[in-house]
Structure formats: structure tokens, C-alpha cells
Amino acid sequence: GDSVTQMEGPVTLSEEAFLTINCTYTATGYPSLFWYVQYPGEGLQLLLKATKADDKGSNKGFEATYRKETTSFHLEKGSVQVSDSAVYFCALKNAGNMLTFGGGTRLMVKP
Amino acid sequence: DAGVIQSPRHEVTEMGQEVTLRCKPISGHNSLFWYRQTMMRGLELLIYFNNNVPIDDSGMPEDRFSAKMPNASFSTLKIQPSEPRDSAVYFCASRTQGDTGELFFGEGSRLTVL
Questions:
Q1: Does chain B have fewer CB atoms within 10 Å around its N or its C terminus?
Q2: Residue B93 and residue A43: Cβ atoms within 8 Å?
Q3: Most B CBs within 10 Å, among A97, A100, A105, A106, to test the B interface
Q4: Distance from CA of B9 to the nearest CA of A (A)
């Protein structure tokens, strides 16, 4: 079945550091890929998405590129802020129209 | 615009008591999902509805859990009797069917069973 694997956290960075959160997936066919973010005390919200190979999703300074050859969708940001502290979830949606989430990666950014 | 609305935000109860969590999806959304989030197991899909009909409840842990959607604007998740291992944050999410995949989540109901 479909699955999503994320790097375990927490990831602790200083403000303005470069961020990478790794995400790889296993799926049949051609899934759409997503990153969701969960701020403390809130529900998940969509951060960015990519629907086909080589697409790049971007939002709020975050980027992720759909790499079919490596089945990856790593999240990056060039300069993190304290306000980026949250839990980040990678997810895929396949032909069945259901989302499969990874385990989440907690990011802590220190001033 | 109102988002997905869940109640209560926090619930503390004793083992054996009945718990009812409520959800109002975004108007116009016809798919509704219930998730459970714990540190140990992450985010788990419990059940989802399309057009008020339960489609897949394979994620419901056991018979103590039940979910209903009597109309397009309301759903409940009931646990009876509750146990300490049910302690978690329960999220409701909704979307339009056939959407590109974006789910809109509520703020969650944090349940503590003593």
C-alpha cells in the first residue's frame, strides 16, 4: 500500500538557518504530493503541493520539488524564522483520492 | 468564512464515561474525515464520509467507537465506554469531493480519559 516516510524530529535550528526536511514515498501510479503544517494548538493546514513529476510547490518561502526518480518530496527553506516552529507533515494522494500522511517532523527554531 | 468547527476543544472525563465529539464541516464540502493524533501513532484516519454516507471505517479502533453524519452540516464521533488509551487529539476535516486533495482541518478536540 501507499506510505510516506519522513525524517524523525525534532529538528532544531537557529533563526536564519537553512531547513531541509526529508520525505520519501511509496505509491503505485502517479500520486499528488503535499506538505501540511501544524502550528501549536491548531489543526493541519496545507502549505504547498505538487501534482506531477518535476513540479515545484512553493509558499511562504518554503519549496519542495516532486522527484519521481527518487520518490522524494523534500521540504526546504532558505532562512527559517522562529514563527516557522511547527510540525510538518508530508502526504500523498493517489487515485483513490485519499491522503496518506507521514509521521510528522517537529521543527524548533531558536532566536 | 468559517472553517471547520469542532467542539469541545478540551474534554476531561473518567474511564467508562461516554464521550461525544462534534464537527461542523465547511459549507459546501461533501467529504468529511475524522482523524486521531497521538505521539505514539501519529495521525490516523478513523473514518470518512462522502455525501453523509460512511465510506471507510476500517480505521475505527473497535466497537467502542462510532461515528454518524445525520446531515451535511454535522457529524459526531462517539466513544462508549471511554478508556485511558483513547486520550488523544481528534481532528475533523472536510473537502469537496474530487478536489485536488486539500483538506481543511478543525482545531481539534483534546480528549483526556483518566
A1: N
A2: yes
A3: A97
A4: 10
Q: And the C-alpha cell for B66? A: 462510532
Kindly report the number of other CB atoms within 10 A of residue A36's CB atom.
25
A15: cell is: 533563526
**Residue B28 · residue B36 · CB < 8 Å:** no
Beta bridge partners of A32: A93
Mean pLDDT by 10 residues, chain A (111 residues): 90 97 92 94 93 94 96 97 96 82 94 94
Q: Quick count: other Cβ atoms within 10 Å of Cβ A64? A: 27
Contact assignment for B98 to A43 by CB distance below 8 Å: no
Q: Closest partner residue to A42 among B93, B100, B107, by Cβ?
A: B107
- Closest to A38 measured CA to CA, from A110, A104, A111: A104
Q: What is the mean pLDDT of residues B32-47?
A: 91
Kindly state whether B4 is in contact with chain A, defined as any CB-CB distance less than 8 angstroms: yes
Instruction: Report chain B's mean pLDDT, rounded to a whole number.
Output: 92
Chain-centre distance of CA B23, in angstroms?
7
